[in-house]
Amino acid sequence: MERIGIYPGTFDPITLGHADIIRRGAKLVDRLIIGVTTNPSKDPMFAPEERLSMVEREVAALGLANVEVVGFNALLMKFAERQNATVIVRGLRAVADFEYEFQMAGMNQQLNPNIETVFLMADVSLQPIASKLVKEIALFGGDIARFVSPAVCTDVTARVEKLGRRGEF
Description:
The chain is of the alpha/beta class. Helix 1 links the parallel strand 1 (4-9) and strand 2 (31-37). The protein contains six helices and five strands. The chain is 43% helix and 18% strand. It has a five-stranded parallel sheet with strand order 3-2-1-4-5, with helices on both faces. It has one domain (4-163): 3-Layer(aba) Sandwich (Rossmann fold).
């Protein structure tokens, strides 16, 4: 039986930390589906179709044959069931992430006890990277090249130019 995993997220934008979890998560399952979703509680810089395209490009660059990208706008457990997934892959950067992810894993287990959540610790050098912080740094004119791929850096820089930078320089 094929072991299918889901790595869900908004990926707004996809970072080097996300890429690390994708590479490592792909080793744990036969097929890893990167689920690009909307999240009403977040303020996205990129539209869902832009994020989907960005993640597809970045995943293709990783060269992982068992990884695919799928957009969704549904309850994670419903999406996982439709994909026949048995594993949810989540990345952890810090204790604050654990508290949130622990609660989500417990709720997801209540919704479907047949789907396990697996936590991967981010690489130490990538632990501080968060999409929210990448956007904030870019909006205030900072250099984000250490946190995202060159293509994503170009995407974010272009969006910031369109939106206008914030703060004093």
